[in-house]
Amino acid sequence: MTTHAITIIGDHFMLPQMFREAIDEACDQPPPMVLHTLDWPDRPMEFGMAGLREYQGSEEDTLELIGDADILVTHLAPLSRAMLEKLPKLKFIAVSRGGPVNIDMEAAREYGVTVVNTPGRNASAVAEFTIGAILTETRMITRGHDALRAGEWRGDLYRADMTGRELSEMTVGVIGYGEIGSRVVKLLKAFGCRILVADPYVQISADDLNAGIEHVSIETLLDEADVVTLHSRVTPETTGFMNAEAFARMKPGATFVNTARGPMVDYDALTEALRSNHLRGAMLETFAVEPVPLDWPLLKLPNVTLTPHIAGASVKTVTIAATRAAEEVRRYLAGEPPLNPC
Q: How many degrees, rounded to 5, is the angle at CA 248 between CA 244 and CA 250?
């Protein structure tokens, strides 16, 4: 009879006790569990370990925590090739993220370690945040807030040539129609705006087509949208694709929103489009380098709203991710195939 052991490495967002409670509920007789809490997000992500994009924790500490466990449940702990070589008993890793960017997947496959993730865990949270981001920027909420905090009453924001426009009179372009983009479309319908979707790899749902959602090329979307909101994945094709040419193509006075990933945006080009007032504003939630440098030019522009990569942060996200990870653990223990293998 196989004896199992679970190591849970969580953090101050994905709480290890949430994982444990979810596993206890999912499994009739859960194996022994060891819990550990990393310092994220109080301490930033780390970079530089071969084969990994971002993570938190040292090789030595992580190896010691995993020990002889055959199951690892984690959010950010690193698993490099060199580490997997030293963990012959490890057979199953549940990563509570949309992608296993803290795992060397090539090495995991070579060593026969099954890795699963939790795609779409924060789709609802990011979609809701995106609507707030659009409204914040188009209705001058940040401008009014910044002025009041500085002791200035911006009565001029009521001027017809200064005030914002309602979503009901605008065209919103959604780039990317995956888990998040499709939810953004669903939420936008309530505002009565014209909605364009650009995504060459998916079909628009029948409900959205019947509701008048238009599936268009990226060129048409940039030409016609008053608001462009980005929800694509980072791929070689999309890296830097929102560049000077793309911003120049957008309508004068349009607004750009990015609650997806930073590497898809040329920030120098965006800065120039905002400085020149070709774009009226931008709302940025993710960045190519995080945390952003204190002298970053976009921090000083008045027509930009910035948040520190928090769109996916919600209690519901934690609950969804923990529940899905626990179900994957249950399936592994029961000898059933995983739902979301990587």
A: 125
Average of pLDDT values for 104-133? 97
Query: Can you tell me the distance from the alpha carbon of 214 to that of 201, in angstroms, rounded to the nearest whole number?
Result: 15
Please state, in angstroms and rounded to a whole number, the distance separating the CA atoms of residues 6 and 103. Answer: 17
Active site residues: 261, 290, 309
Residue 196 has pLDDT above 90, yes or no: yes
Gap between the Cα atoms of 180 and 322, Å rounded: 19
| Inter-residue contact 286 to 260 (CB < 8 Å) | yes
What is the per-residue pLDDT across 125-145, written as a single tens digit (0 to 9) for each? 999 999 999 999 999 999 999
Is the preceding omega at residue 31 within 30 degrees of 0, hence cis?
Answer: no
DSSP reduced 3-state for 306: strand
CB atoms within 10 A of CB 85: 11
- Cα 309 to Cα 133: distance, rounded to the nearest angstrom: 12
Count other C-beta atoms under 10 Å from residue 219's C-beta. 11
Q: Which of 259, 260, 256 is nearest to 270 (CA)?
A: 256
Q: Say if residues 184 and 231 touch (Cβ distance below 8 Å).
A: yes
Q: Read off the pTM.
A: 0.91
Sign of CA dihedral 33, 36, 41, 44: negative
Q: 89, 69 in Cβ contact below 8 A? A: yes
The confidence score (pLDDT) of residue 1 equals 61
The mean pLDDT value of the chain amounts to 96
Rounded CA gap, 47 and 37, in Å? 19
pLDDT in tens, 289-322: 888 999 999 999 999 999 999 999 999 999 999 9
Tokens 């995106």 identify what position?
A: 130
Residue with tokens 């499709």: 182
pLDDT of residue 290: 86
DSSP string, 229-285: EE-PPP-TTTTT-B-HHHHHHSPTTEEEEE-S-GGGB-HHHHHHHHHTTSEEEEEE-
Closest CA to 274 of 299, 291, 295, 292: 299
